[in-house]
Amino acid sequence: MINTLHIKNIGIIDDITINLNEGLNVLTGETGAGKTLIIGSLQILAGGRFSKDMIRNGQTVSYVEMDAYLPNMGYENDTVIVSREINIKGKNTCKINGRLVTVSELKKFMNNIIDIHGQNDNQSILDISTHIDLLDEYALSKIKQSKEEYLKLYEEYLDIKSEISRNYGDEKEKQRKLDLLNYQVNEIENADLKVDEEEKLEERRTIIMSSEKIAINLSDAEKNLNDLAIDSINIAIKDIEKIEKYNDEYSKILSRLRDSYYEIQEAARDISYLNSDMYFDENEQNEIEERLMLIKSLKRKYGNNIKEILEYKEKLKQEIYDIENLEEYINTLKNKLNLVESEMFTTSKKMNEIRNEYAQKLCLKVNKEFEELEMKNAKFSVKIEFSDDKKFNKNGLDKIEFQIVTNVGEEPKSLIKIASGGEMSRFMLAIKGVLADVDKIPVIIFDEIDTGISGVAANATGEKIKKIARNHQVICVTHLASIAAKGDYNYYVCKEIESEKTKTKVKQLSENEVLEEIARISSGSITDISIKHAKELRKGKLKDIA
Hints:
The protein is α/β, with parallel strands linked by helices. The chain has helices at residues 35-45, 103-110, 131-138, 140-166, 171-191, 197-209, 211-241, 248-277, 282-302, 306-324, 326-372, 421-435, 455-468, 481-484, 511-523, 528-545, and strands spanning 2-10, 13-19, 24-29, 61-69, 79-87, 92-96, 99-101, 114-118, 379-386, 398-405, 413-414, 443-447, 473-477, 489-498, 501-508. The strands form 3 sheets. It has a 6-stranded antiparallel beta sheet. Strand 12 (443-447), helix 13 and strand 13 (473-477) form a beta-alpha-beta unit. Helix 4 runs antiparallel to helix 11 (326-372), helix 5 (171-191) runs antiparallel to helix 10 and helix 9 packs across helix 10.
């Protein structure tokens, strides 16, 4: 339920906050005071269209926010705060519990929270796609098991169809894919890649490009070792040999010098070998560059390195094998699909029988509601079409539409084709009265659905709204005393002039104020007689309180 509604800068509404309650919340007041703007603000909050003309004169931003208690929806403390801000340039800022959302996301969320019924609104029940769900909710105890079995089969059905499609069941697509895969495998295999090849090529490329510098430094190193280091160490060895016998430490130094002599000799030979092996071959450099470019091209297509490219090649080969051996696999899938479709058809037929049974029960109850609303010529019917072409959807093979006959002798027609807005609202009220127990939308709003009715019909309309309010929070804008008298909480909407500007005011009424408002609505003035009449109308509500 909505706890608080805050509206700012919409039409003549300056800044108001309305604290709403469980049950039936009734809004009454003078014409043009802003009752319609309050409902319009809820429509805006529900993701409805917004015109810049709705922004209060002299302001640049309009704002609507609600604080709602919505248990079992996974929100902390079961509290949800929804807001929508729109500026003069048309920019929207929508939030759900502080999280930014798009208008479409807001609309999708709010579709499960509030259902607005007014003469010119597209109510949820006018959406034909919802009719099958409403009927199934009505038949829940009987259809639940069959529907669960069907949905399990339907999920398997979608998986099998997806697998068949994924595995190139189309011969032309299959051949196209094979050609591409074979081309990719051949391209990789013709390259004859080795795992560590790229690193070695890069190393060799660096050496070739630096060959002149390397050769000069190797030659200098070899010359210095031979001409300086080796000869100097050799002389030092001979000098120490002459005094070796005088001290053991001299013998140790001599041993180290001889080891160094042999190591430096060996290093000099290695440098000489490396230097003799140095050469610059322009053809080799070109071959290395071409090879590295090829590897780079393959990396761009098939992997980040040669190892990944070779792994990808094996995957391609496996996919080629799978496709070339698909026929048997596809046939297996198709046989499985036929079995699942057969089970789905049987279950769909069973659901169709249940839906037909409960459609008749629903029609009887709705038509009884019509009679109580003084619409004796109106007849409600449910059109159920069963398709045997196996074009399955999540609900089976049934197409369901709620229809209405408005006058004797006419054919049933779609709800959306009913011309009269007031008549439409009463039809919706009758249907809502029956479906209220199964409809999970917590907040229902009725905006002047009493247009064109009076007397017995008006009282019956009030009773229907009151019945719906037992299981939903209802917000009702009305001009009828008999409906206002049913309110659990009554609010008076008026307009006042402050600082030469008109502003909407909303006040929750006390019981005495409720009686005065009912008296004003019923007779146009507050007198002893109209107050007495208001008390009579209010008796039913007071009994409920007691």
